[in-house]
Structure formats: C-alpha cells, structure tokens
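User: Predict structure, ligand magnesium ion.
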Amino acid sequence: MPVLVMKFGGTSVATLDRIRRAAKRVGVEVAKGYDVIVIVSAMSGKTNELVGWVNETSPMYDAREYDAVVSSGENVTAGLMALTLQEMDIPARSWQGWQVPVKTTSAHSSARIEDIPPANINAKFAEGMRVAVVAGFQGVSPEGRITTLGRGGSDTTAVAFAAAFDAERCDIYTDVDGVYTTDPRITDKARKLDKIAFEEMLELASLGAKVLQTRSVELAMRYKVKLRVLSSFEEQSDSAGTLVCDEEEIMESNVVAGVAFSRDEAKMTLVSVADRPGIAAKIFTALSDAGVNVDMIVQNIAEEGRTDMTWSCPTDQVKRAEAAVHKAKDAGVINFQEVIADTDVAKVSVVGIGMRSHTGVAAKMFQVLSSESINIKVITTSEIKISVLIDRKYMELAVQALHDAFELEKAG
Ligand code: ADP
Ligand code: ASP
Ligand code: MG
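Assistant: Predicted complex:
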C-alpha cells in the first residue's frame, strides 16, 4: 500500500483533545488506503521545560544526559497518539527512535540521521498495522545512546522517514496553514504562498523562519520528497497548504519571496588586533575550534597597523567565543585590546531566487531601512539573499517596512 508521512508539531498535540483531532485526520488518510507513518513532536512548551530543568540541574551538562531528558516529551505524545488511534479501531503502535531504529551520528543535541532501516516497521505493516506512530526529534547513536536532532528536529524526522519509506508525500501539520511571505505573527499583511522553491525555503529556514527545520528542507531537496506544510486546525482536511518544490514547478513569483528574521544573534568585536596576513585565520580558527558558529564577518579599516574585527554568532555562544579569544590571547596566538559583545541585535534577511537575475534589491533594502532611520551594523549577501544586522528594537519595524516595500502582500 502507498505510504504517507504525517507530522504533527507541538501545538497540534498540545492537549488530548488536539491529539484526537490529529488522529481523525490520520483516520481519513487510512480510509483512503494509505499506510501512515505519523511523526509527533512533544506537547508545545514541553521541550522548553525539559531544557530548563537540565540547565538548572547542570549548567555545563553532559550532552548525552541532556538528550536523555529532552527527548522524553516525544515518547509521551507517541504513546498517546497510538492509544487514541487504537480507540478509533485503527491498528497502530508507537515507536521510539531507538526501536525503529533511527540511526544517527553521536553529535548529541544536534545529531544527524544516517540511516532508517525500514524492515521493522514494514514487517508490522505487512501484518496489518496501519499506522506507525514515531517519536520525532530522537534517534540512537552508534554507541547506543539516545540522541536528539536539534530544536525543531521532528520536521527532519518526518522528511527522513518519507525518504526511507519512499512515501507519496510528507505533510507537516502545524499552527499556520502554510509558509508565508514572512512570519504571520509579525504582520497581518503576510501572504500564504501556494508553492515555494526548495532553495528559497532552505534560506528562509536557515535565516530564522522556524516553520521548517533547515535540515528537513535539505533532506527533502536531496531525496526529492514531496513536502507540504498545512494547518492541523482547519476543519477542511484537504486545504492545500504550501508545497515546497523545485523552482521549475513555480510559474510566477516575486523577485523577493520572503523576509526572515532571527533574534538569536550577537555581534562581537575584537578591538585593535594587528592588521597583518594570517590574523583572520588565527581568530576564526580559535572560534571554530571552540565550536562557535560564526555567521557574518567584517574587518574595519586599519589605522596604524591595527584594526577591529567584527562577527556575529548565536547569542548562546557568546561566552564560549569570549573564552576562545582570551585563550588564544593568553597563548600568544593573537593580540587585542578588548572583546565587546552586543546581544541587542537581530538579523533581518530578504530571500528570493529572482535576485539571481534582478539587480537593485540590495539598494532598495538599504533605502527602506535608511528611510526608517534604522542603522545597519553588518551586511552579508549570497546569490539569493541579503542579510543585515540591526538593533533588535527595530526588528519588527524593519520586517514590516521591507514587506511593504517589496510588495509581498501581492502575488507576483
Ligand atoms: P510546530 O510546533 O508545529 O513545529 P513551529 O512553532 O516550529 O511549529 O513553526 C510554526 C511557526 O513558524 C508559526 O507559528 C510561525 O509563527 C512561525 N513562522 C516563522 N516564519 C514563518 C513563515 N515564513 N511562514 C509561516 N510560519 C512562520
Ligand atoms: N520538541 C522538539 C522541539 O521543541 C522537536 C520539535 O518539536 O520538532 O524542538
Ligand atoms: Mg517546529
């Protein structure tokens, strides 16, 4: 029988009532003749609570135990979903990641899926089970320890199962009815897109649009998974949501497809470093060795052989970055006067594959920000995106102004 993957996010399984509602949707697909793999998140707020407990117990925690704790929210919803389906007379059982098994790397708290052997679940489908409910976000390392896939990782579990079982489609049910031109919580002018290209979705996700985890989009693109985002709240079960697809499948689109933002950014500056060959290599090697994910970089104009080096990184890596540059200074590898961290910044980005063939997007973006008197601290560009770092207090204003200026409320 054809296989369908249906993923329900945290708000879609937040209460027993919502689990029943989600189970009904699963029942509709089972009645159509599909064998269904349901991937569930933890109830909304649960994972945050678990992360909080870990941090409170052990600030410099052992990542293996972090994963043991934070993966547990999904175990509860997987079991409850299987029970709910059984109550509806649908043959179903739950699977934790290690039982499938979802084999991952041992990079605890951000593991990657390496393999999902389908044999165990397929054997149960062959015996008449109609729904396999799998706990999202978790897997098992080669050492036999529980791993997790990074926040939002259930999306990636879903796409990986769709690839492994050659599913007809991977449906991501969430609390919005699709992918919008920007987060609909920031502006009510945000417009739902019927289709979005993989590459645009990949950029939007990695630049902060949390509707899909970045890795899930990468996997869908690589394995040609038909990926759909839709609401679990709308009564009409066949409302189409947004299809994430190849750009060839999209007939018309705007130059800018969407605006993304991320509050989770910090700007760090090393004041007065020697301006000579090799110095950037030393600074960024020290940061990379410490596991700091550097995003944007600017080197300021040198004066009398000294310069300032600025970069951005996730807010929760600031302490680690400070420790790394001080360690390199103590070891005589680099020399600087001081390191300054500014955590009151945000990154705002415009994304669109149309930028490959249209000029002037950057100029327009900078004009819009300037007319709102928003100062740009750092800029980076790639073929299909432009990102700026600005004061966090202007983030919403910048997103709204850019959404208006690029007329994203209108279809292209
Ligand atoms: P789930 O718990 O179902 O995984 P998430 O909270 O992870 O849901 O993702 C859905 C949220 O993503 C939405 O509620 C919305 O606020 C946010 N979001 C951010 N950017 C976008 C966008 N461009 N389109 C749709 N939703 C977005
Ligand atoms: N429950 C996990 C999280 O909140 C995984 C997910 O929901 O996708 O990050
Ligand atoms: Mg999510």
